[in-house]
Design goal:
The protein is of the alpha+beta class. Helices cover 19% and strands 30% of the residues.
Length: 335
């Protein structure tokens, strides 16, 4: 990255490509300007919209990102990244985009999007030339300590969602509240829910981080989440949400598995818990099946092996009542 002039071109190329993809509702266009979680989310979104509107959306109101403030770290070698803090014509949040470039022969692509409240973007540590300091992938001996390494965040987070153990993360909507919501759905009168959370890492899902003035860091990371809802015996499942139905594959007889991806922005202190500034989670696939969980409660989370647990073979009668298994989309939110 040569400087802000190049960063402005990268941002403009992104918005042009993004708008083109959404006008044509063409998932294939996403990969030109996005990678990682944003690309997965956009591909699924466009595939669902295209199924509902095959002719595209020529009247799509273009996304506009302005008032851009670029934070560029001085980095030797590859990959490289920088952060664009922008205003959008969509809402009153600041849109933080992390652009990454794998090597000199590949283009810059948006690898993370986070929506932060006005005034909540951390202050970055800058050198005398205005360059930021990237947290290296491996700890260096002269580096100020962090409570957790950025590359360890995804594993720590998925472990927490599974077990609830540890004190790496502060309580909030992205931690304790998610586990509480899952506990409510573990067993209901019409269906049971089970979960598998999968950590991600570089090179497909890097965890870029920049040092902040307080000695900590702002970091970004990705995780994947699967939720299986299985209707109880005598209940026939049903999905009503149009977007979910457009993404549904398989044979919806007894269960549906939702696959989601999340991208998070967090602050890491030198000591103390990691705090979520923003977490975006979106459905990327739904798959029906005829597998039936036996007469037991599906516990919160999956065992460390990643298996769903014992599965039975009971089937509902053809005239069974319906269970609405549509899982609501998590909105873009804070914390």
């Amino acid at each position: 990255m040569s400087g802000k002039a190049e960063a402005e071109k990268v941002l403009r190329r992104f918005t042009d490509g993004y708008n083109d993809a959404y006008r044509k509702l063409d998932p294939a266009l996403v990969d030109r300007v996005e990678t990682g979680a944003p690309a997965e989310i956009a591909r699924a979104d466009l595939a669902a919209q295209r199924a509902l509107t095959p002719g595209g959306n020529p009247g799509y109101p273009p996304l506009v990102l302005d008032d851009a403030r670029f934070t560029i770290p001085k980095m030797a070698g590859w990959p490289k990244f920088f952060v664009a803090d922008t205003h959008s014509n969509r809402d009153q949040h600041r849109w933080l985009l992390v652009f990454t470039r794998a090597d000199a022969g590949r283009p810059w692509k948006a690898a993370y999007l986070s929506l932060l409240n006005q005034g909540s973007v951390p202050q970055f540590a800058l050198d005398k030339d205005g360059y930021a300091q990237a947290v290296p992938a491996a700890a260096e001996t002269n580096e100020a300590p962090l409570a957790v390494r950025p590359e360890a965040l995804s594993t720590a987070y998925t472990d927490y969602l599974r077990s609830g153990a540890g004190n790496v993360f502060a309580p909030g909507t992205s931690t304790t509240q998610i586990r509480a919501e899952r506990a409510k759905l573990a067993r209901t009168p019409t269906f049971w829910a089970e979960y598998i959370d999968t950590p991600e890492k570089a090179p497909g899902f890097p965890a870029p981080a920049l040092r902040t003035k307080d000695g900590g860091a702002l970091a970004f990371f990705t995780a994947h989440h699967r939720e299986r809802r299985t209707a109880v015996a005598g209940v026939r499942p049903e999905i009503t949400d149009p977007r979910t139905k457009a993404l549904l594959k398989g044979d919806l007889k007894q269960a549906v598995t939702y696959t989601r991806v999340s991208e998070s922005a967090v602050t890491i202190p030198g000591k103390g818990p990691v705090v979520f500034l923003n977490r975006i989670e979106s459905l990327t696939e739904a798959r029906g099946s005829n597998r039936f969980v036996g007469n037991r409660s599906a516990g919160l989370g999956a065992p460390p092996s990643g298996s769903w647990g014992r599965v039975g073979t009971n089937r509902p009668p053809a005239s069974a009542p319906q269970a609405h298994l549509s899982a609501p989309q998590r909105p873009i939110g804070q914390g």
